[in-house]
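To assess whether the prediction recovers the assembly geometry, we first specified each molecular entity separately, as shown.
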Amino acid sequence: MQNSGRQSRRITAAQVAEAAGVSRSAVSRAFTAGAYLDRAKREKILKVAQELGYRPNALAAGLQAAGRSDLVAIVTGDLVNHYDAEILARLVQSLRGLGKWPVVLGGHEDLREEDVLGVLGYPLDALVLRGGSVAESVALHCAKLNIPMILSGRVMSAPGVDCVCCDNARGAAMAVRALVARGRRKLGYLGGVPHLSSDQDRRTGFETALAEEGLSPAVLAHADYSFEGGYAAARDLLAGGAEIDGLFCANDAMALGVMAAARQEGGLSIPEDLSIIGFDDISMAAWPGFDLTTVRNDMDETVSQILRLLSARLEAPGKDNEVAWIEPELILRGTH
Amino acid sequence: MQNSGRQSRRITAAQVAEAAGVSRSAVSRAFTAGAYLDRAKREKILKVAQELGYRPNALAAGLQAAGRSDLVAIVTGDLVNHYDAEILARLVQSLRGLGKWPVVLGGHEDLREEDVLGVLGYPLDALVLRGGSVAESVALHCAKLNIPMILSGRVMSAPGVDCVCCDNARGAAMAVRALVARGRRKLGYLGGVPHLSSDQDRRTGFETALAEEGLSPAVLAHADYSFEGGYAAARDLLAGGAEIDGLFCANDAMALGVMAAARQEGGLSIPEDLSIIGFDDISMAAWPGFDLTTVRNDMDETVSQILRLLSARLEAPGKDNEVAWIEPELILRGTH
DNA sequence: CAGTTATGTGAACACGTGTTCATAGCATTC
DNA sequence: GAATGCTATGAACACGTGTTCACATAACTG
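The predicted structure of the complete assembly is given in tokenized form:
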């Protein structure tokens, strides 16, 4: 009953050393590849360590080797958004391939800036920030703490900050041209949260491309990047008697909501009565029953570029900041 | 050019102390609520710290206060699975409410056990394991390292391991009775990965409830818990001429895939020609166009219980292990 | 055999913090 | 006026590790 109830401490290298009858240094060396240590001794130590369930404390190790904690914070968008969820999955897996441990923040709308600043208490190897609007204020703190920052879905010019971003305007223009080529002339835009640059760029690209075709927008509407928001917006448009024959949606989730509303509330056929094009190319867009024409915001390429910039930045902390542009691609399916 | 290229070190408390003309102890006290420190002095220190961008190193702090690193590892399922994605989002947000930082692992099928063992190098406050099959081997290591483990979607009896699990058999039985009450007699089961206990329990519940109604399964099939898998399985069933009038699917994603296949490949009307019931109640199930009848595997309640068990375990590390059962609820919509 | 090199090894240091210890000043109480 | 209690403060310690330092032994080289 000596230790009852109390949380006993973690096994330490000193305890392993005592049990194996060696010095503590030897234990540390046993877990360090390439260190001078007698083979038999190393095996003895590893065996004892295994029995005791010893594992070097990563916190203490990270404290020792300054500048490499192997922790990387990811500030994600709302995971109800499928695009963010799929990106996160790829990102988490890829970071493990680099030996990094991802600390995940956000995942919901009310992401408090306080949380982001809080995680900076850890000596992070890097901070990956997906979209969002807190970038500017966070960047300042990152700079002071010498923590590299990688921005995805947004561009910012600051020392130590690298960016990966889709050419949103170009993607929007591709959608417009595809709709016009299909014979559509009364085109509408359904945007997302207006204060995000992704939405602004897609809208600008939409309007510019439309002007080049000698057309002007028939409708400019906004929702919240969600299926439900897209559904409600489309229902309101239909009820308001809006006359459109093509709609470009700022992301796929809203496009799917619009399709559901157009079919169920408006009795419309797609694409006969209304052409729809989305943005992102989430996995759901390819599902039979949706078959959504969309602009691919390539996730694999995005994650790949994030990792490339991350590695380069860790290699050369003082290098110039860089922006990796992701080329959009029009995926032709059945709704345009 | 003195420091060019080299990654300059993080600001430390000693540097703040020197800049503010106080002892290092005072700096530490300035960031500790309730410590004896002259008010003016504290304000001075905080001001200097702000200017220098100082932030106490959480690694060193965690090393100091043994037993509380505020790090919690989450081993999630594949995030392509919407249920896992939605659970993760809630979990991440809730853990922040407890002041914990979530380190996320997995998110893809090939979750290597090596990764899970690797994260145990950190002195975690706890490990949350969603579903999966690596539980047994991990539990042993957790026990040796005195790291509390919380299992979700799976039950295991071991000291220091708490579990949260839906009563899968009961949920399956509810689905069966709803189908029978609708007049269905030729019922099939579309399961997920067979070696997971969630699938086994749901199938057992299905068969038992069916037997109680004096019926036997018309079809027992398996897919991979994905939309695409459900679609393919349903197509094969239709091509094979299977005679069923009701299908219970082990999760919603497969149920949605089955619906798409039944409509597009088989030309069937739902629920007129075929009743379908899913499991989980992901947000998509409620979308117009799907309107899926399903057994709710309550996510809010699950996360809430995980947090309760976590708090209780941190409060009393030696307490008996506990299993929190989540009561399933039949959500009646339009597909049964 | 003398001289150089490669291999082992334990003691000691550094990482950056929170907290205890001892001491000192000051205000309050009897 | 002495005794007591509260506030404030810097030095010192502990946390658990990786690595350097000094030294010892063994293995080659000429």
